[in-house]
Design brief:
Shape: elongated
Helix content: 55-70%
Structural class: mainly alpha
Strand content: under 5%
Radius of gyration: 22 Å
Length: 179
């Protein structure tokens, strides 16, 4: 009796033989969860780090937001954005810090997740166009990578293990729909 090995891409051991469920379906279902956790924790940490740094929220001085903005003014892609921040550096610093906190908490718990992800993408875009624009080669500036990491969450939101999913499920139960 001859035995042959299957060579088609369907592996019943991965998906339980049913095609849609099993391990493969579970892994695909939760694929964005590590990204949500990483970005949520990172943005919460970044916001808290700024808020607890005595030097950061100042107009000038070592480690201040004002010094940072003056330092990147001439090398940024959008100097007008830096000029706007330089009108009141501490206010800009607080806006970024509280924005990072709101985005981080929103994506971590999955509350208004698409909006939170859009906020994270906009923060990353603004930092890429100002602070890390002059990075050479471009991939040394991490803000571009963060921008790209936010895009799948802007598109998909937080469809599971989230407040958004719980609210959606509750609405469906109230209307009698099971989908």
């Amino acid at each position: 009796m001859t035995h042959s090995r299957r060579t088609d891409p369907h592996d019943p051991h991965l998906d339980g033989g049913g095609g849609r469920g099993g391990l493969r379906g579970t892994l695909a279902h939760y694929a964005l969860l590590p990204l949500r956790i990483f970005l949520g924790v990172t943005f919460i940490y970044a916001g808290l780090d700024k808020l607890t740094d005595n030097a950061f929220m100042k107009d000038s001085g070592a480690g201040s937001i004002g010094e940072l903005m003056h330092g990147v003014r001439d090398s940024s892609a959008v100097p007008a954005l830096v000029d706007l921040a330089l009108k009141n550096p501490p206010a800009f610093g607080y806006a970024i810090a509280f924005g990072e906190l709101a985005v981080g908490i929103g994506i971590l718990v999955g509350l208004l997740a698409r909006l939170a992800a859009l906020g994270g993408a906009l923060i990353s875009l603004s930092l890429w166009l100002t602070v890390s624009w002059a990075s050479d080669p471009y991939y040394y500036g991490n803000d571009l990578a963060y921008l790209m990491a936010w895009i799948p969450l802007v598109l998909a939101g937080a469809p599971y293990l989230s407040i958004d999913a719980a609210l959606r499920s509750r609405r469906r139960q109230r209307t009698g729909r099971n989908q």
